[in-house]
């Protein structure tokens, strides 16, 4: 009879949960608050029915609720992994990283502060040990975002506020549970450790959990493509992941299972969309939302049912202690919110969190199911005395009830009082303008529909009249938009562009014209554009849109690996990623320009649309310049990527055509599936990105360089052993003025600019720079900056000297070029002695005196610009292409040094 009874009780709970959802909406309460109330009432009713002498008819079902057939460990293992993983999936993790420091402060620091405040406040009054008081503090330190976030969504609170609160709860569960385990071990004597050992154990549990969760989740993500067309299998894998990680971490690896599950959810959220079809990812999210709803509701209801048992024997002293807990918890939260968050802003580690946000965060610190479950585990612990367990469970339960009944019911009025649920003046003005335009379009469509379907005019007149009146009312209020300053209207337009760009990214991803590995970066970028635009206006928009055109730390690291260790693959991958990103970035800019001209212009007017058009065109020009710089270096690869993009679009159009034919019953299901298999093969081929060859093979670069092209193959190989290929990016400073000369550089492709104090010189393919300091022994007297992508051959000082000694024809040529460079770099009227020739002069007897000044001849102190151009005439240079492409003449500089010196400098 027990199994049917449990099944029936479970069905009753689900029925209650289903009915409470619409009731909570009607009453204007958060569902979790109502669940706690109803659960408490069920617990009271079950206790009454079990112990009342009036009847015994309900004893079996009442006993089931008063003494449920589960314990705290079962609740944690069944429900906690689900809740943690699903919260990680729904969080916009990339946007959360922008507020990571406030979240970490609220999630980790606040837990320790609350534990300390509550523990030390209770210790003098409670008669309990300090560890027992701190254990209670750890239990009630974790917040529950379910009620708070539900209220935020219900009234339309700012998304950033919800992200901070959800991120806090996600991470503070981990911090509080880890701290709870350590303190529980200390109070029961299971662990004996010093304060330092406890901190080490805490850090090990945290870091170990992060590593275990991230590693196993990454493996699961790699398995997703194996189940490409099996969404049910993908969901099943995602469901097994948090349970497996929690058990493995908690029972076998001895790290925090909570932290591991959170880490796994974050990794799955970051990399999962790139490995799964958009429709399958949406299906997975829907299933997890349902599972989370069940888990959160059941854990709340089951925990609340136990509340009457927990608060049994509540004494007057307990009321005083509960008041102390409430005040201490609020004070601890206030210290963190109003004391530490402003410090983060001062240190530049976070955006400003305004006072209204901080007030809501302070009042939104509700406790819930996790606190009740931890209290249940204390009540069940055999090694704790009844006095300690009663002290902890009564106060923890009372505090949860207080936060739900007081904070939960007053949070919505507080948000409304602060005005966080209302549109600001800009959005209200935009609303009226947009409403006027939209209703006018709807009215015209209704008239068209009525005509097309032959609806009698007297029937359609009333409907059209209703819309006409609404249009007139909205139009009468559109002067609000005109009253706004141009700055505000431009901000409205920029925010609309940022939101539209995010939508365009998702549309391209769903159309499969953007790869999975690229969509994550684009979504992060569009989120940042929106945030910076809202915070800083036009300057923030420009800063956010220009940031991806720069070379980040990852690119610099890949470039360093190529230069120092000769590992070129990471650099090639980064360049290929940049190629793909820039091509899509240009397409997005084109689409935004059209969107501005056709959709924003009617809404905000010609003047504002013109400003937005200038902003978008500048962005487009900068993107095109970045693309052309790469195209000049790798034209074939650029053509291949553009061709691949068109093939992706073609595959999508082909798939759409087949779907429409099936929907119109032109083809059957079997034929449709057959055609889709061909489409899938074409799609896989179009998404296979070609490898980018950097062209940094030393021997090939030497053979293509005019200085070495005519040398015998044997000598080219010998020179190649001394040369080191180097890849330079636009605007990279290759040589700094004032440094000691340690190498000479031979330009195989690309262009550089030598920046002397008086003028600039541009050098291209076949030129050499950096050699004069090696010959004079002085310091460099100019900066050398790459104008575009460059392939260089780097030769160390000692190898350069050896090369000059072994190859007299190269030595003579370099001497002539260096002398010409000195004349070219010199200021007008400046007299320069020749410091170069003595360094490499051959004495009459044939003995080399390289490196030694001739008698009575001292070298210059090195104030000559460390540069050289084979194509300079009277110091004049041609203007380079801004993108910095491949430079100049390909003449034989060795055979015709004099002629080469008369050519104009090749431009980029």
From TrEMBL:
* InterPro entries found in the cross-reference section: Cation/H_exchanger_CPA1, Cation/H_exchanger_TM, cNMP-bd_dom, cNMP-bd_dom_sf, Flag_MotA_CS, RmlC-like_jellyroll
Claim: Transmembrane is one of the keywords in the record: yes
CDD domains of this UniProt entry? CAP_ED (cd00038)
Does Transferase show up as a keyword for this record?
no
Q: Which spans are transmembrane here? A: 30-50, 62-80, 100-123, 130-151, 171-189, 201-224, 230-248, 255-271, 291-307, 319-340, 360-379, 391-408
Annotated coiled-coil positions are none
Q: What is its main location?
A: membrane
- Composition bias, Polar residues: 866-879
Can you name one GO molecular function term for this protein?
sodium:proton antiporter activity
Annotated compartments: Cell membrane
The protein here is known as: Cation:proton antiporter
To which species is this protein native? Roseibium aggregatum
